[in-house]
Amino acid sequence: MSEQSKKSSLSRRQFLKGVGTGVAGSIAASKIARALPLEELEKASPPPGQVLITLKVNGREKRFHVEPQTTLVEVLRERLQLTGTKVVCNHGECGACTVLLDGKAVYSCHMLAIDAQGKEITTIEGLLSGEELHPLQKAFVKKDGYQCGFCTPGQVMAARALLLKKPNPSREDVLEGMSGNLCRCAAYPKIIDSVLEAAKIK
Ligand code: FES
Ligand code: FES
């Protein structure tokens, strides 16, 4: 590896590390309540300033005491350790945090956990069948639809929502359906090929 490429790969790693630290920091800074066993939660009154919420995530009901301003992505990553869902902008702009709510793609950084009650929440982990990748994930691997991979879970979830709505999309449909998900590596052509490939798998 040349000195120049060593430097650039190092800086990319540092950048990703920086992103990771920022994400962890922002979540740690949020005031998320301590997890309690279910029976205790149901008996106990919420601590001051918190509310008891129930979320259905990947088919399982979970209850938490949270401050009302807690976002869905904070609960997913910090409380449920479902860290496949990524945070980049934390501002409803990039789509890295995309999950499904009743089959529709939403930005989980831009949604309060309290508002996700009563919906079926699906994260990237919920697409797996045991250890088996979902056909969409296989299509991304087959078509090389990623580079650093940081945006990939959000891209896959957006693609899942698109294919649920439109199982046989045209290239234009895919372009439009995936337009809410940014990729800093600009892997767009292969991401689109991956979604079209997944649509062929019945
Ligand atoms: S992290 Fe949620 S939209 Fe960017
Ligand atoms: S693959 Fe790197 S940000 Fe999309």
TrEMBL record:
<dbReference type="Pfam" id="PF00111">
    <property type="entry name" value="Fer2"/>
</dbReference>
<dbReference type="GO" id="GO:0051537">
    <property type="term" value="F:2 iron, 2 sulfur cluster binding"/>
</dbReference>
<protein>
    <submittedName>
        <fullName>(2Fe-2S)-binding domain-containing protein</fullName>
    </submittedName>
</protein>
<dbReference type="GO" id="GO:0016491">
    <property type="term" value="F:oxidoreductase activity"/>
</dbReference>
<keyword id="KW-0411">Iron-sulfur</keyword>
<dbReference type="InterPro" id="IPR002888">
    <property type="entry name" value="2Fe-2S-bd"/>
</dbReference>
<dbReference type="Pfam" id="PF01799">
    <property type="entry name" value="Fer2_2"/>
</dbReference>
<keyword id="KW-0479">Metal-binding</keyword>
<keyword id="KW-0001">2Fe-2S</keyword>
<keyword id="KW-0408">Iron</keyword>
<dbReference type="GO" id="GO:0046872">
    <property type="term" value="F:metal ion binding"/>
</dbReference>
<dbReference type="InterPro" id="IPR051452">
    <property type="entry name" value="Diverse_Oxidoreductases"/>
</dbReference>
<keyword id="KW-0560">Oxidoreductase</keyword>
<dbReference type="InterPro" id="IPR036010">
    <property type="entry name" value="2Fe-2S_ferredoxin-like_sf"/>
</dbReference>
<dbReference type="InterPro" id="IPR012675">
    <property type="entry name" value="Beta-grasp_dom_sf"/>
</dbReference>
<feature type="domain" description="2Fe-2S ferredoxin-type">
    <location>
        <begin position="51"/>
        <end position="127"/>
    </location>
</feature>
<dbReference type="InterPro" id="IPR006058">
    <property type="entry name" value="2Fe2S_fd_BS"/>
</dbReference>
<dbReference type="InterPro" id="IPR019546">
    <property type="entry name" value="TAT_signal_bac_arc"/>
</dbReference>
<dbReference type="InterPro" id="IPR001041">
    <property type="entry name" value="2Fe-2S_ferredoxin-type"/>
</dbReference>
<dbReference type="InterPro" id="IPR006311">
    <property type="entry name" value="TAT_signal"/>
</dbReference>
<dbReference type="InterPro" id="IPR036884">
    <property type="entry name" value="2Fe-2S-bd_dom_sf"/>
</dbReference>
